[in-house]
C-alpha cells in the first residue's frame, strides 16, 4: 500500500511538468474467458499520447499489462479494464485488487458491451459492502481540463440507452469509475479500428483525460479539504 501512495505522490508533483516519462499506467488482465485484450493495440496508448500532449503529463508511452492478482499492480497509479465477456476474480485476486484500490490505486472500467453482468458481480467480491452509484453531472471528474456538463459522452450506441458514469466510493474516495453504455475505451482507438467520427473520438479522449487528471492530481483529496 505504501508503494502505490508513494507513486501517486510522485504523479501529483510531476503532473504539470514535461520531460522524461516518470510512470506507467496499465491494462488489467483478468481470467474468465473475457477478452481483456479487446482494445490492446491502440486504445490506452492513444489516451496516453493525448494526455502527454494536452495535459503535459509524463506518462510512459507504452502501457503496462498487469494481472489482477499480481503484486506488480501496486506499481501503477491507474489501471484500465475493458472487454465484452466473462470476468472471474478468485479470492486472492479480489483481495489483491481491494488492497490496491483501498491503498491509493484507481481502476477505470469501460464496458465494451457485454461485460456488465459479469464485472458487477466480480467487483462485489472486491468490495462486498459497496454498490456502484451513479455520479452526478456536477462531480469533479466531469469538470477537469474539459467540461462535460451533461456527464459522459455517448460514443457507441449499444442498446440505445443513456451513458452512465458509475463509481465505487470507499471511505469517501472514488476508487473505481465505470463507464456503462458509453464505451470510452473504443473511442480512444485509432480511427481505422471503428471508423468513429473525429468529434466522437475527441469527446472520448477528452473524457479519458479528465479521468486521468482527476486521479493523478489528487482531486479526490482536494475535495476533502
Write a structural description.
With 225 residues, the chain is an alpha/beta fold. The protein has one domain: Domain of unknown function DUF4159 (Rossmann fold), CATH 3.40.50. It is built from 8 helices and 7 strands, in the order αβαββαβαβββαααα. The protein has a 7-stranded mixed β-sheet, with no helix packed on it. It is globular.
Main attributes of the structure:
disordered C terminus; Rossmann fold; 225 residues; single chain; 36% helix; 7 strands; 8 helices; alpha/beta
The largest beta-sheet arranges its strands as 2-1-3-4-7-6-5
**Termini separation:** 22 Å
How many strand units?
Answer: 7
Radius of gyration, in angstroms, nearest whole number = 16 Å
Based on the coordinates given, report the CATH architecture.
Answer: 3-Layer(aba) Sandwich
SSE order:
HEHEEHEHEEEHHHH
- CATH first level: Alpha Beta
Number of helices: 8
Q: The CATH topology is what?
A: Rossmann fold
Shape: globular
Structural class: alpha/beta
**How much of the polypeptide forms β-strand, as a percent range?**
15-25%
Uncertain segments = 221-225
Q: On the 0-100 scale, what is the average pLDDT?
A: 88
Helix content: 25-40%
How many structural domains in the coordinates?
Answer: 1
CATH superfamily: Domain of unknown function DUF4159
User: Tell me about the biggest sheet?
Assistant: 7 strands, mixed
